[in-house]
Specification:
The protein is α/β, with parallel strands linked by helices. About 25% of the residues lie in helices and about 15% in strands.
Length: about 525
């Protein structure tokens, strides 16, 4: 009996050593903005070069069926953070300039899970999830709640997005470099009748980049924006410097935390409008500023990878590259994206783009790279950014409370390229506010519209009926609506979609993901 006990103790000791033989990796999630499936060389682009991202794909796993959860920015970012489909919570459409915090303190997030696992947690770049509480953000005071109240140790943010005011940086709880003698004001209407806007003919004639629709309120850096703001001049940024700033801040943060596990979200502003890359990138492609912004994004990735190499962190860092939604060309500015497109196909072989529940809206570049751990290759497993919370919780041994991250699935084996790993067998796709939803089950996909009115504006499309049904295996471009040919399948999938919508979760929690 004593010998058995000794053997058991030894076995447990060996097991403990085996579990801890591979330390928890550093994790960097690089989320591009409005980048389409066909916008990178590694996904078939021929009209521009993206060597750094292509190298990331060569060194890791490139997914051909990688998704974001929604075809606009705020809902995708909400789902990344919370592991919950954004349509489940009201007010999670594209956030206006004065939006208050969409994720309240006490919410379990991808950051809080990793913080509990001992990680340093940071986010640099675009936020667009609101700050503060009612009646609105205190731009001249403490901007809380925000990222620091939901699991992040540090944040350096573009508080909304670069086509919206205010055009300032937020560091932790405050606007950086704000002069109290020049207070910042943000509003939904003109602060005074003589406030200059992009609508004024004399002002419009002098704009650095003209607008095509919207984006004609307060002018900053020679560009019209959505919303109105005054003051805060010492705190304002220049569009051309955003990418450099994100890279500098991120590398400095990594250097400060290189001796412990860290989790960083690098939320790029590229290639969101207004597309004003740094002067050294302007003219680098034949595709206008949209193509130049993709090259700038590629440079950002290269700088981050080079910093990891310099700090000898390459083999201890897992990089996940993704996009918040599919591509858009004219999104409010006359920047040559449409006129200089040439042979480039931003959504690759897929239909639709940003704002759409066709594949082009949510199927995006998705790369998982961890040199020495992930075998390089190509994967056809279905994975989604909403699943990063549960997957990283599993990798770091964190249990998820029963009601948290209700739509996030543990796809760790698929993300690591393990043999016999499986991806999602179903996935919901939403546009902005979730009034229309799509459900993919295997190769079949149903699109359910809240009404039969034609959708017009921007790049997004809508087919001919209230419901559309496609078989993606033989029709990846979603051109042949099979709804009338397969009424039983249509009815079954619509019932499944409704069940997911009303249940409050995608699937009952499994023992390896949730606390009982």
């Amino acid at each position: 009996m004593r010998i058995k006990c000794i053997l058991l103790v030894l076995a447990l000791g060996f097991l403990h050593e085996a579990v801890h033989a591979t330390p928890s990796p550093n994790v960097i999630v690089i989320m591009a903005d409005d980048l389409g499936y066909g916008d990178l060389g590694c996904y078939g682009a021929t009209e521009l070069k993206t060597p750094n991202i292509d190298q990331l794909a060569s060194n890791g796993l490139r997914f051909t069926q990688g998704y974001c959860s929604a075809s606009t920015c705020t809902p995708t970012r909400f789902s990344l953070m919370t592991g919950k489909y954004a349509f489940r919570d009201p007010g999670t459409g594209v956030a206006p300039p004065n939006a208050t915090a969409l994720i309240q303190p006490g919410t379990e997030t991808i950051a809080s899970l990793l913080h509990r696992a001992g990680y340093a947690t940071g986010i640099v770049g675009k936020w667009h999830l609101g700050l503060g509480n009612d009646p609105g953000p205190d731009w001249n005071g403490s901007l809380e709640p925000g990222p620091l109240e939901i699991g992040f140790d540090h944040c350096f943010l573009l508080p909304t997005t670069n086509d919206r005011v205010p055009c300032v940086f937020v560091e932790d709880h405050r606007v950086r470099n704000l002069d109290p003698k020049d207070p910042l004001w943000v509003g939904n209407s003109k602060p005074s009748p003589d406030h200059p806007t992009g609508m004024d003919p004399g002002v419009r004639a002098k704009l650095k980049m003209d607008w095509s629709h919207g984006h004609n309120q307060t002018v900053h850096n020679g560009i019209g924006r959505i919303g109105f703001f005054t003051g805060g001049h010492a705190a304002r940024w220049r569009d051309e410097d955003l990418a450099d700033t994100w890279v500098q801040e991120s590398i400095q943060w990594i250097e400060r935390h290189q001796n412990k596990p860290f989790f960083l979200i690098f939320a790029a502003h590229d290639i969101h409008v207004p597309r004003i890359p740094h002067e050294r990138f302007q003219g680098r492609t034949e595709l206008g500023f949209r193509g130049d912004a993709i090259v700038e994004l590629d440079w950002c990735v290269g700088e981050l990878v080079e910093a990891l190499d310099r700090l000898k962190l390459t083999e201890s860092t897992w990089i996940i590259f993704c996009s918040d939604n599919g591509p858009v060309l004219d999104d409010g500015y006359q920047d040559g994206a449409t006129t200089k497109l040439g042979k480039h196909t931003p959504a690759g072989p897929f239909r639709g783009g940003k704002y759409s529940i066709y594949e082009g809206g949510t199927r995006t570049p998705f790369i998982s790279c961890w040199p020495g751990t992930i075998e390089p290759g190509v994967s056809d497993k279905i994975v989604c950014t909403i699943d990063l919370a549960a997957s990283l919780a599993a990798r770091t041994g964190q249990k998820i409370p029963p009601n948290a991250c209700p739509d996030s699935l543990n796809l760790l084996p698929a993300l690591l390229g393990k043999p016999d790993a499986v991806g999602r067998d179903f996935l919901i796709q939403q546009p902005n506010r979730g009034t229309s939803l799509a459900l993919r089950v295997g190769d079949w996909k149903v699109l359910s519209y809240a009404n039969a009115r034609p959708i017009k504006s921007l790049t997004f499309e809508k087919g001919e009926g209230r419901y559309e049904l496609y078989n993606l295996a033989c029709d990846p471009g979603e051109r042949q609506n099979l709804a009338t040919q397969h009424p039983e399948r249509l009815e079954k999938m619509l019932a499944q979609l409704e069940a997911i919508k009303t249940s409050g979760h995608s699937r009952p929690p499994s023992a390896d993901q949730r606390d009982p």
